[in-house]
């Protein structure tokens, strides 16, 4: 398959980077680009606050800081995600509790989450996996019932739409976005959190800037790190943000064609297209032959992989290792929960096909042809 390059970097990003360099101000504390990017994202998402930072992982760290778990408190999350979802939980000395997922799309199963809520639970972190809308309406209801913070990891879900309207990232108290190289849009690395809550926004802004309340002089109001986005990142991200609606529309057009064509193919379950923003194109193979199908597609030159992860995060080697120095605090005696649906997806039934905005009908036809050929084999 001819390489379809999914990046949209061009003259607009070059001009943006040049504008910043010629201005002589590369730092967002004194520049204008990061603040302008925040206003643009607030407008796009209809959020009261957008806060830029250095990566998606940093954005998720800010969201955990906003949720303010005490050391040893628990955060319920999914075992099928990037480690950037989980690392911030550990960074705040909290305990990740893995809940099982819906076998149809790999997103958190609200019933599994409900069973794990206990006296130490402080937050729920949902991930809109591959761009498919997670069931955040049900999770927000659970969070409200138990006084928890719902965080939405939208790193793979720029402009994902929720049932009934609204964008992924606006149902929880905090939404997190990533601008890493391979996300829908990029500035190399970068992150943004969105929230309607003034107090959560204040905590996140302080933590991203060394706890420094700039209005109060050289005075530190809270513990924080330096998670600031640079002006170069922000200027490039602004040029990319302008292209985002087109990027998502182009991904949707071709992905919906493939999803419809796969409806009738035995042995594969295509994703539900509603609201999906197609970071990748996931397929569930209920017979457990995703590794064989991935190998077949790869041989035909179609970039596809089985499982997405080497192992679901509840089975990652990190849980047997020390966390700080020789200490395992707060994980002494910790055993991640078994998550049989997530384990079956990663081990046998989940296939992910790379997707991007430059896929054409010819790419889609080739994928359909090769998947049909695989199914027809003796
Ligand atoms: C990419 C990603 C992250 C981490 O974002 P970075 O910008 O790479 O730090 C977190 N969660 C999910 C679901 C991701 O895909």
Brief overview:
The protein is α/β, with parallel strands linked by helices.
SSE blueprint:
Blueprint: H1 11-23, H2 33-45, E1 49-53, H3 56-67, E2 74-77, H4 87-91, E3 95-98, H5 110-116, E4 121-127, H6 136-146, E5 149-153, E6 174-178, E7 191-195, H7 198-208, H8 231-262, E8 280-284, H9 290-299, E9 304-306, H10 340-349, E10 350-354, H11 361-376
The structure holds pyridoxal-5'-phosphate.
Q: What tags apply to this protein structure?
A:
378 residues, alpha/beta, Aspartate Aminotransferase, domain 2, Aspartate Aminotransferase, domain 1, 2 domains, seven-stranded mixed beta sheet, 37% helix, 13% strand
Write up what this structure looks like:
The radius of gyration is 21 Å and the shape is globular. It starts with 10 loop residues before the first helix and ends with a helix. 37% of the residues lie in helices and 13% in strands. The chain folds into 2 domains: 11-241, Aspartate Aminotransferase, domain 2 (3-Layer(aba) Sandwich); 244-375, Aspartate Aminotransferase, domain 1 (Alpha-Beta Complex). The model has no long low-confidence stretch (mean pLDDT 96). Helix 1 runs antiparallel to helix 8, helix 2 packs parallel to helix 8 (231-262) and helix 3 packs across helix 7. The protein has helices at residues 11-23, 33-45, 56-67, 87-91, 110-116, 136-146, 198-208, 231-262, 290-299, 340-349, 361-376; strands at 49-53, 74-77, 95-98, 121-127, 149-153, 174-178, 191-195, 280-284, 304-306, 350-354. With 378 residues, it is of the alpha/beta class. The relative contact order is 0.16. Pyridoxal-5'-phosphate binds at residues 55-57, 81-82, 84-85, 127, 153, 155-156, 178, 180, 189, 191.
């Amino acid at each position: 398959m001819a390489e379809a390059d999914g990046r949209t970097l061009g003259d607009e990003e070059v001009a943006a980077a040049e504008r910043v360099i010629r201005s002589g101000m590369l730092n967002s504390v004194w520049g204008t680009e990061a603040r302008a990017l925040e206003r643009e994202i607030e407008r796009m998402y209809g959020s009261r606050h957008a806060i830029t930072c250095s990566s998606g992982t940093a954005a998720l760290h800010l969201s955990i800081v906003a949720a303010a778990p005490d050391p040893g408190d628990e955060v319920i999350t999914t075992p099928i995600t990037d480690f950037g979802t989980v690392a911030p939980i550990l960074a705040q000395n909290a305990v990740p509790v893995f809940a099982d997922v819906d076998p149809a799309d790999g997103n958190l199963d609200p019933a599994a989450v409900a069973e794990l809520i206990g006296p130490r639970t402080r937050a729920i972190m949902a991930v809109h996996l591959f761009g498919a809308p997670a069931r955040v309406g049900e999770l927000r209801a659970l969070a409200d019932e138990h006084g928890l913070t719902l965080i939405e990891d939208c790193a793979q879900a720029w402009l994902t739409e929720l049932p009934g309207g609204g964008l992924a990232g606006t149902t929880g108290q905090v939404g997190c976005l990533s601008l890493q190289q391979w996300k829908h849009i990029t500035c190399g690395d970068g992150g943004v959190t969105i929230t309607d809550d003034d107090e959560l926004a204040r905590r996140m802004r302080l933590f991203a800037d060394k706890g420094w309340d700039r209005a109060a002089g050289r005075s530190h109001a809270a513990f924080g790190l330096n998670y600031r986005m640079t002006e170069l990142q922000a200027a490039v991200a602004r040029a990319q943000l302008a292209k985002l609606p087109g990027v998502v529309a182009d991904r949707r057009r071709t992905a919906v064609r493939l999803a419809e064509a796969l409806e009738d193919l035995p042995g594969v379950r295509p994703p539900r297209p509603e609201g999906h923003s197609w970071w990748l194109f996931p397929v569930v193979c209920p017979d457990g032959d995703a590794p064989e199908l991935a190998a077949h597609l790869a041989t035909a030159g179609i970039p596809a992989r089985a499982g997405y992860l080497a192992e679901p995060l509840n089975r990652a080697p990190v849980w047997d290792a020390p966390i700080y120095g020789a200490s395992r605090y707060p994980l002494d005696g910790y055993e991640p929960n078994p998550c049989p649906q997530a384990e079956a997806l990663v081990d046998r039934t989940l296939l992910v096909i790379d997707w991007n905005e430059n896929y054409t009908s010819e790419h889609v036809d080739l994928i359909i042809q090769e998947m049909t050929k695989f199914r027809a084999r003796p």
